[in-house]
Amino acid sequence: PLLFVLSVCGQALAAGVIRPVRVFVYENTLYSYMELEDIHSPVTQAEVKIGNQSFPASGRLETVRQAGFPITYLLLVDNSTSMPPFREQLVEFGSQLASGSGENTRFILATLGDDFQILSEDVPAAELGAQLAAMPFDENVTRLHTCIDSALDYFEQLPRQGAELREMVVITDAVQYDPAGGVPYEELLERIRQSDVMLHSLGLGTDAGALERLGKLTEASGGIHQVPGTELTAAAAADVLSETGGNLMVTGFDLEGCTASGEDQKVSFTFASRGTLVGSGEASVDLPGAGTDSAAET
Question: Which of 276, 292, 283, 275 is nearest to 253 (CA)?
Answer without folding.
Answer: 283
